[in-house]
Design brief:
It is a single chain. By secondary structure, this protein is an all-alpha fold. The chain has one domain. The chain has 4 helices and no strands. Helix 3 packs antiparallel against helix 4 (64-82).
């Protein structure tokens, strides 16, 4: 059985929080953002709008927790956009 360190436990707790908050890991969100900033993909603005549309659909069908996660994803994208002034879209 491998030894588990405090760093391993800390990383596991961070990942649990991310899964609860976003329904995925922040690395997954970073990958999604990286794909969206490619030419002709619409950028941060369209990604956030798309995620919010998904949240609206979840609300309409009563999946409120999933809607909350989508809203948190959109906020993550907008925060990334705001904190990276070199990003123009």
């Amino acid at each position: 059985m491998p030894n588990i360190t405090w760093n391993d436990i800390s990383q596991i707790e961070i990942e649990k929080k991310q899964m609860d908050m976003y329904g995925c890991l922040s690395k997954d969100l970073e990958d999604m953002i990286a794909e969206e900033i490619m030419p002709l993909m619409g950028g941060h603005y369209m990604l956030a709008m798309s995620i919010l549309s998904d949240a609206q659909e979840c609300i309409a069908i009563g999946r409120n927790n999933r809607a909350r996660q989508y809203i948190n994803r959109a906020k993550y994208v907008m925060r990334h956009w705001k904190n990276n002034p070199e990003v123009t879209n």
